[in-house]
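Researcher: Structure prediction, please.
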Amino acid sequence: MGNESSWSGSQCLSTLNNFFRKYLFRVLSCGAIPTHIAFIMDGNRRFAKKQNMVEGEGHRAGYKSLISMLNYCYELGVKYITVYAFSIENFKRKPEEVQYLMDLMLEKIDELLREGSIVNQYGMRLYFIGNLKLLSEEVRTAAEKAMKATAHNSRTVLLICVAYTSYDEIVHAVQESCEEKMNNIQAENTSKAGRNSTEQNGSCEKMNGVHPHEIQDCHKREVHGTVILGKNEICCNGFSKLEASEKKNGVIKRAVPGFNGEKWNEVQQSMQSQLSKGTIESGEDGETIQEIKPLLSKGTIESGEDGETIQEIKPLINLVDIEKHMYMAVAPDPDIVIRSSGETRLSNFLLWQTGYSPLYSPAALWPEIGLWHLVGVVLHYQRNYSYLQKKRKQS
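Model: Predicted structure follows.
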């Protein structure tokens, strides 16, 4: 009888709490609600020490807090939640602790995929963000399985940063951008070489037992480090008149019969002098090919003959290329970052993405985080919302 009364009282209290929480969230929703909240889950080990727990149990307590926070965020209408679960730096911890964390991660990934879990209940998509190659094969396979299993979910998104640091993410993005550009350039040059070979077939015959070769991208000249050749110039291993162009110290050196080192030095000194004045001359009849400074400011190079624009000067790698290859490219930048335990450092977490994200640092350790801390987060965000929006528009 007493047990039934106790259960009934607990159920009544739970119903009352749910009603109060929904009412509270409805009031908060009158203001701006963050689309993306990022959590640095700090203080699990300190919590275990504080509660005299066995080492590692603090992380289990932290996982329970994470599930509660995911529930609250979903009810509040937050679309993206990112958590800093395991840094690359954490691999430097004691091997037993690292192994415990990896085993715990395997256990919780499996738990998240079970029927009736928070992932299936809320239609949550999972992303594991970071250098997954650093994980053991077992953990990496489990992470990939979870991402594949939830790929069709779209109501909310959970991004779990493991084997992650911002430095590694930025280096990865730059490397991927360079490889993509190089592949594009090689494909374009191969295509051009094929077209030029077809168009110019027979224009260079075998001379002195040497086969002629074509210059790829033969519509360019070289001016101040930019390659420029005439439209019909074909290099036949030095046997044509002014066909071959070679860069030396950023200045044009043309393959002309009888061209010697002494003559090269004279031309080099002359052209460097003209470079300092902002012009380059052809070296043949004094015709000015280009005024460098004004054209650089416009971002174009002209041929100097008929005013035809040959090339736009553009950076090979730009901001969009790098951002496209970021691990976090699957989500918008965080609206606010929360780090528990009162710490105010980002610790190499989302450095690229948080330029306009306020940092909120409650004193509570991560396993102690609860509903009222999330309310504080939202109020802090709403208080700074207008200022942050203004700064984002100015950027």
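Model: The first strand starts at residue 36 and ends at 40.
Researcher: Thanks, that helps.
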